[in-house]
């Protein structure tokens, strides 16, 4: 389980007789000088400092020391495993010395916690289903404060509150966090009424807020996250119902891209094959700019339906293709079929006999290769055959080819 980033100290005190000690004692001594901090995102930071230590040990040991290459290779393998080890199991140590085990979390969560701990406001930008709300809840746990939430608001009174007909103060989640301390998540801020966002901006800018009954100073443990699908520049191709936010409002935030954590997605779904398929669909949709959302919920919900006995086709219909026209669906399914690259086995002059979009059968001639490309009178030409049936999706861009160059690509 990770407890954060392994941090190499600035100065390492090593014994003078280092070269006379066994390797395990050297490694043990160095590891004891390392520290652990909370700002680790996964295990990315661990491998760098450990690799530096290994190099330092190897340099100090010199050529006279017993060959330790096998031991060093073993440690380097462990470092590689650390780099690949996700999703993140995160344990956070608070300022009062208490620890909070957050369990399996998004790889970017430690960085988000670190930013919030400085008192800065964070604008969290991410696609639907990327776990922004869940991340905010985990940040509140890590910081040891209550969690407060407000979705898109159509009136500033949803933030400031109001005095009702009986003269009673109607408070809000924002006021509770601002006045008493806590983490406040303003979700879908880019879909909110602009005047409400301006009132929110005033509170962040001045560290106080005029509520209906009195002016309130910002609590020292007030933390703020604004979550959105866009950068506040207005509607885009995917999220058409979003407003453009005032530049002064945006300037109050540190922006953080909250991406899909696909390894966490796979772990949460419990079905690696299905999650892999969902992620391939997602990448195709994104690469081809198709207006369709394929979030990690497709992996998680789909895995549950498969476990309940639904067929793969049924799950795809209700999870992946919902609301999609048949032409787009066919484009995706065809695009996901495996592509077979046919490579040149010899160098020469290649003459193409097929075109992109053409369907070929196995052993059809897709071109000819002249191995004596520089000798016009002594040509040695042979046919190049398709290795399998399918559609030609890509052809060579040049006639002179070398061994290993791709001549055509066939989608099976």
Give structural notes.
The protein is an alpha+beta fold. The chain contains 14 helices and 21 strands. Strands 6-9-12-5-13 form a five-stranded parallel β-sheet, with helices on both faces. The chain has a four-stranded antiparallel β-sheet with strand order 14-21-19-16, with no helix packed on it. It has a four-stranded antiparallel β-sheet with strand order 18-17-15-20, with no helix packed on it. It is extended and about 100 Å long. The protein has four domains: 5-86, no CATH class; 91-257, 3-Layer(aba) Sandwich (Rossmann fold), CATH 3.40.50; 267-335, no CATH class; 339-411, Beta Barrel (OB fold (Dihydrolipoamide Acetyltransferase, E2P)). A hairpin with a 5-residue loop joins strand 3 and strand 4 (99-105). The two termini are 43 Å apart.
Runs with pLDDT <50, length 5+? 38-47
N-C termini distance: 43 Å
Major sheet description: 5 strands, parallel
Helix content: 25-40%
Structural class by SSE content: alpha+beta
What multimeric state do the chains show? single chain
Average pLDDT metric: 79
Rounded to the nearest angstrom, the radius of gyration is: 29 Å
């Amino acid at each position: 389980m990770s407890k954060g980033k392994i941090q190499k100290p600035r100065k390492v005190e090593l014994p003078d007789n280092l070269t006379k000690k066994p390797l395990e004692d050297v490694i043990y001594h160095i590891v004891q000088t390392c520290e652990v901090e909370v700002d680790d995102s996964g295990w990315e930071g661990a491998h760098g400092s450990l690799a530096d230590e290994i190099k330092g040990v190897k340099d100090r040991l010199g050529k006279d020391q017993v060959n330790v290459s096998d031991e060093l290779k073993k440690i380097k393998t462990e470092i590689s495993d650390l780099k690949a080890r996700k999703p993140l199991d995160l344990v956070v140590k608070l300022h009062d010395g208490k620890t909070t085990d957050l369990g399996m979390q998004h790889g970017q969560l430690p960085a988000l916690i670190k930013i919030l701990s400085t008192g800065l406001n964070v604008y969290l930008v991410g696609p639907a289903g990327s776990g922004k709300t869940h991340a905010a809840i985990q940040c509140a746990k890590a910081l040891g404060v209550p969690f407060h939430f407000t979705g898109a608001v159509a009136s500033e009174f949803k933030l400031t509150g109001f005095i009702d007909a009986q003269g009673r103060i109607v408070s809000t989640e924002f006021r509770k966090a601002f006045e008493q301390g806590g983490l406040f998540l303003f979700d879908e801020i880019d879909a909110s009424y602009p005047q409400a966002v301006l009132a929110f901006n005033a509170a962040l800018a001045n560290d106080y807020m005029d509520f209906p009954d009195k002016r309130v100073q910002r609590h020292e443990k007030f933390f703020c996250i604004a979550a959105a699908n866009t950068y506040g520049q207005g509607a885009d191709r995917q999220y058409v119902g979003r407003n453009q936010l005032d530049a002064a409002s945006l300037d109050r935030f540190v922006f953080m891209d909250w991406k899909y954590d696909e390894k966490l997605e796979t772990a949460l779904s419990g079905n690696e094959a299905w999650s892999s398929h969902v992620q391939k669909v997602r990448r195709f949709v994104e690469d081809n700019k198709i207006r369709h959302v394929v979030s990690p919920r497709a992996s998680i919900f789909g895995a549950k339906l498969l476990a309940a006995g639904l067929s793969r086709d049924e799950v795809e219909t209700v999870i992946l293709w919902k609301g999609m026209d048949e032409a787009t669906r066919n484009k995706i399914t065809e695009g996901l079929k495996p592509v077979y690259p046919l490579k040149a086995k010899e160098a020469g002059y290649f003459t193409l006999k097929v075109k992109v979009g053409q369907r070929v059968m196995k052993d059809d001639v897709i071109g000819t290769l002249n191995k004596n490309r520089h000798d016009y009178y002594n040509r040695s030409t042979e046919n190049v055959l398709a290795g399998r049936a399918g559609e030609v999706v890509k052809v060579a861009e040049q006639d002179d080819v070398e061994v290993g160059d791709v001549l055509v690509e066939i989608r099976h």
